[in-house]
Specification:
By secondary structure, this protein is of the alpha/beta class. It is built from seven helices and nine strands; from the N terminus they run H-E-H-E-H-E-E-E-E-H-E-H-E-H-E-H. 43% of the residues are buried.
Length: 213
């Protein structure tokens, strides 16, 4: 096993001492996030059992093409979320512009036009907090590059629910404000460079249901 795979499996094991099955991964990004996601999401492999939900701050006044662009580069399905859509494991869902993305019991997706949170709609905090309520300790939350503090409270909610918390190393981020805000809120399980996150994502598909702690 090479060094990057050893590192990724350590990331899977470190928080509990045993391999941890993850049913869902929530990702938040802002400035610099398109480039970061372009490196990370292609690391997801067929056989992934976790659903992936992404909020990235983009201009609200026009449609987003990021899901369509990344779908062409990824080995798993990537699409923009629809209201009341059942969650399909192994699928990446992007919040559409100008709508909050929430996870409801089922699990299924919900879109909301409620007021912006942290000046953002979609809000990372809103996604993370709703996902923590549904998935609890079988959730992983990841904060990437960004220029504000959206996501800090949401990642704290993931931590308090028993989920796994990851933050891009601020020194590795294109814009460090969002990772630094998340780290200032409280301890996290893993602080990783983009290459370290790629290794963790690559390992994620290998975790089976019977491996759950």
């Amino acid at each position: 096993m090479n060094a990057s795979m050893n590192s990724s499996m350590n990331a899977m094991n470190a928080s509990t001492g045993t391999t941890r099955a993850i049913d869902a991964l929530v990702i938040g990004a802002s400035a610099g996030g398109v480039e970061a996601l372009g490196l990370l999401l292609p690391a997801l492999r067929p056989g992934l059992r976790a659903a992936v939900f992404v909020v990235i701050h983009l201009p609200r006044e026009r449609p987003s093409v990021i899901a369509d662009l990344l779908a062409q580069r990824c080995a798993v399905p990537v699409r923009e979320a629809d209201d009341k859509e059942p969650v399909v494991p192994g699928t990446v869902y992007f919040a559409p512009p100008d709508y909050h993305l929430l996870i409801e019991r089922g699990p299924c997706l919900a879109l909301s036009f409620d007021p912006p949170v942290n000046f953002s709609r979609p809000s990372i905090d809103v996604l993370f907090e709703s996902a923590a309520d549904v998935y609890a300790r079988r959730l992983a939350g990841l904060i990437l590059t960004g220029a504000n503090d959206d996501g800090a409270l949401g990642l704290d909610a993931v931590r308090r629910a028993g989920g796994l918390t990851l933050v891009q190393d601020p020194d590795d981020a294109q814009v460090s404000s969002m990772p630094r805000a998340a780290l200032a809120r409280g301890p996290v399980d893993h602080v990783l460079s983009l290459s370290g996150i790629v290794a963790w994502l690559t390992a994620l598909a290998s975790v089976r249901e019977e491996d759950a702690a």
